[in-house]
Amino acid sequence: MSDLQKPVRTIADLAKIAGVSAGTVSRALAGNSLVNAKTRKKIEQLAREHDFRPNQMASKLRRQKTGVIGVIIPLGHDRHQQISDTFFMTLLGHLADELTEKGYDLMLRRVIPQQDEDWLDRFIRSGMIDGVLVIGQSNQFDRIEEIADGYLPMVVWGNHQEGQRHCVVGADNRLGGRMAAERLITAGAKRLAFLGDTGPFEFAARFAGARDVADRMGVGIEPVSVHLSPDQTGREIATFLAERRDEIDGIFAASDTIAFACLRELQRMNVPVPQQMKLIGFDDLPIAAQTIPPLTTIHQDISAGAHGMVDLLLRRLDKEDTESLVLPPRLVIRGTA
Fold first, then answer.
1. Structurally, what CATH architecture does the domain formed by 68-171+302-327 represent?
2. Which of 126, 211, 282, 336 is most deeply packed, by most CB within 10 A?
3. Quick check: 201 and 170 in contact, CB under 8 A?
């Protein structure tokens, strides 16, 4: 088979047909003015005739850019939580839309830090990504801080603390917790429970805010550990309610996902909501308005948060050391409190 009949798969193949170097072909197809117009037109014509398209990934790698943003979810606090969690899927959807709009692809990883101490370092050093978005601080705050000291293009979804070094986007969780407790107490609740693991920084801040208000208003609030995993969430809520539901009349769920499971269990136990048990979630996921009764919750603008994460990351890719973005929460009153 002659050179003209062979399939053209690489720049080297096209260069052989054109009678020029591979470098000349590469520059010509990139529109480089160093290649004279006649040669450039000849190479472009041959590329069209042979339906040749340059390998975009290889081109990006030569420029030391991959066009890929890494998105990583560390689950150090709850290894059984899954990416199919409604909050993760909502945020990931918005991030994918934002990144695609900016011309980037997304590479997703879920990691268990106890099984991989270098979970963040190795991802960054892999050469496969231009920057990284971390969804949740989990119990990995210190590790993220260490990486932030030497790696600029990283933005984290989570809770902002005064003096932290990594760039974070997220709601004012403590303020949201205060709003939730105030609503429960104003609605008549006198004995509160906070359902959620207070280990992760976001949940801890939500509980701290609720406790601020409960202490100020002389109302008790008890933290109850509930894990976010398909096998555990419903079981742990059912156990708690079976043992303690007569001791409380208001529940602040650390997330809407926990609130949904709680509402299902209260309905199964024929506990009327909000007459006998008042319930507030946190997130305001799309399904929150569709439960029966509709869920009263603390709204955090996940869409705006995703936009902010991508915007800050792109600015950091341009060597700008950005500030964190703290989003204002908002109480959405519906039917459960």
1. 3-Layer(aba) Sandwich (3.40)
2. 282
3. no
CB 91 within 8 A of CB 284: no
pLDDT in tens, 200-230: 889 999 999 999 999 999 999 999 998 877 7
- Summarised one tens digit per residue, pLDDT across range 58-92 is 555 445 578 899 999 998 666 667 778 889 999 99
Closest by CA position to 305, among listed 33, 91, 47: 91
| Domain 173-299 in CATH 3.50.50.60 | no
Query: SS in 3 state form for 149-171?
Result: CCCCCEEEECCCCCCCCCCEEEE
Kind and range of the H or E run holding 30: none
> Which amino acid appears at position 10 of this protein?
T
Find out whether the peptide bond into 329 is cis, omega within 30 degrees of 0: no
SS3 228: coil
- Contact indicator for 227, 58 with CB cutoff of 8 Å: no
DSSP state of 133: E
Q: How deeply is 218 buried, as exposed, middle or buried, from its count of CB atoms within 10 A (0-12, 13-18, 19+)? A: exposed
